[in-house]
Amino acid sequence: MKVIVIGAGLVGTYICEYLSSEDHDVTVIEKDPAVCRKATDTLDAMVIQGDGASPALLVKAGVHKTDMMVAVSPDDEVNILACLAAAKAGVKIKIARLRNPEFSHEGALLGKKELGIDFIIHPERETARELVWLTRRSAATDVIEFEEGRVQLIGVRLDASSPVLNKTLQQIDRENPDLLFRAVAIFRANKTIIPGGEDHVTRGDQLFFITKTELVPQLLEVLGKSDERIEKVMILGGGRVGRIVAAELEKDKECQVKLVESNREKSQRIAEELQRTLIIVGDGTDLDLLAVEGIMEMDSYIAVTSDEETNILSCLMAKHMGVRRCLALVSRPDYLPIMASIGVDAAVDTQTLTANAILRYIRRGNITSLASLPGIEAEVLEIEITQSSRAAGRKVKALNLDHDGMIGIISRNGQVIVPIGDTELRDGDHLIVFTTPASVGRVEKIFANR
C-alpha cells in the first residue's frame, strides 16, 4: 500500500515507523528543514520538504497513486487541505488530526464528509478521555477498553502491601477461581515480559490484567488496590484538555471539581463554559494558594498545562501535600517509564494516544484494532477469526505463540472466555492478543488468512 504522511513530528514519525515495518511504501512531507533532515536520517521512507497543502507537491509525491493519506501536521488547515486534495485525487483512506473541535462534533457545518476526511482524531479529546478513565479507575496506571466497554485492560503497580507479592500468576489464579482474568504483561526493571503461569510478581512490578469491566473492582481488591471513590478533584490548566476533563467529571453530581488557571480573562470564559466547576485564578505552583484552596483535601490532582515540567513539578508538590492520586500530562513518550519512580501515579502522552487512535483505524483485515501500552514495549491487537483464518479450528496450544504473544480474552457470541491451551478458536471469535513490537509481524502471520 502506498501512503503519504503529512508531518514528521512525533505522531508522524510513529506512524511512518509502523507502516514502514509492514513493508508499505511511505512518503513523508514535512515543512521544517531541520525536522526534514532528521526524518531523512531515521525513517525508512521517502522524505520531501515542503508544504503538505500544496497541490503541486502532492502530485509530485504521487497522490494519484496513493491508497492512504495521514495528515498529522501541526496545522489544522494544512491537514484539511491535504485531505481535500487527496479526496479529489481518489485516495481511498483519508485521516486527519484536527485540534479545532468545531470540525469534529456532530452537526458541524463542515464535518468530515464535507472535508473529504474518513477519520478525524481530536488529540485533546482523546487525552481528556484517558485522564477521566484513570481518575474514575483510581487504582490503575492505565485503562484501555475493548469490546465496546465490556472488557478492560488495567495496569496496576504493586507496592509493599500487596497480598499477591512473590506469588506466581498460577497461584493467584487458583486462589481466586471465581475471578475471570488474565495477566498479559509485566513491566519490571524497564523490561517488558509476556508472562507465563510460573512467573512470580514482585514489589514495584507494573502488572497488566484483562478482565470483564464489572470484575475490575474485585480484581483490584485481590491485588490490594481497592478502588476508592474519587470525590474531590483539582485540575491545573484551563486549556482544552483541562476544560474537557472538568466538563466530564462535573457530570457526576457527587464529584467536586476545582480548576486552577493563571490567566484571568481565560478563567472568566471557562467559568461561563462549565456548570459546576469552581474556577481559581492563580499560579498552580504557589503552595500557599493550593493550601488555601484545599489541596490537602483532594482525592485527585490532574496537571494538564502546556508545560510538562510544570505538570510534573506540581504533581510532586501535590503528592507531598498528601493528595492520594496525581496524574500528569507529558509531551515526551520517553518520560512515561520514569513517572512512577519519581512519585507521579500515572501520566498520559497526547502524541502516543493520537498515534494509537490512528493505528486502530488503519488496521484492516483480521487485525481490527491495535494499541500500544504507554511507557512499555507491548502491543495490544484485537483480532477477528474468520473461516479463512489460519487459526480457525485450531487449539490455542497449537498456535505456538510461545513468549511472542498471548491471547488474553476471547469474545464469543457475547460471552467472554479466558482461553486455555485446549480452547479451540472458531469463526466469529474476537481475540485480544498481547505481544511485543518486535513480534507483531509473526503474531499477525499466525492469525492471517490462508
SSE arrangement:
Elements (H helix, E strand, L loop, with lengths): L1 E5 L3 H12 L3 E6 L2 H10 L3 E4 L5 H6 L7 E4 L4 H13 L4 E5 L21 E3 L1 H14 L5 E5 L4 E7 L11 H7 L5 E8 L2 E3 L12 E7 L3 H7 L9 E5 L3 H10 L6 E6 L2 H10 L4 E4 L5 H6 L7 E4 L4 H13 L4 E6 L8 H4 L3 E4 H13 L4 E6 L6 E6 L20 E8 L2 E3 L12 E6 L4 H8 L3
Parallel strand pairs: 1-2, 1-4, 2-3, 4-5, 5-6, 12-13, 12-15, 13-14, 15-16, 16-17
Antiparallel strand pairs: 7-8, 8-11, 9-10, 9-11, 18-19, 19-22, 20-21, 20-22
Strand order of the biggest β-sheet? 3-2-1-4-5-6
CATH architecture of the largest domain: 3-Layer(aba) Sandwich
Instruction: Report the span from N to C terminus.
Output: 20 Å
At the fold tier of CATH, the topology name of the largest domain is Rossmann fold
Fraction of residues in helix: 25-40%
What does this protein look like?
With 450 residues, this protein is α/β, with parallel strands linked by helices. The chain folds into four domains: 2-121, Rossmann fold; 139-222, Regulator of K+ conductance, C-terminal domain (Alpha-Beta Plaits), CATH 3.30.70; 232-353, NAD(P)-binding Rossmann-like Domain (Rossmann fold, 3-Layer(aba) Sandwich); 378-447, Regulator of K+ conductance, C-terminal domain (Alpha-Beta Plaits, 2-Layer Sandwich). The chain is built from 14 helices and 22 strands. The strands form four sheets. It has a six-stranded parallel beta sheet with strand order 3-2-1-4-5-6, sandwiched between helices. The radius of gyration is 23 Å and the shape is globular. It starts with a strand and ends with a helix.
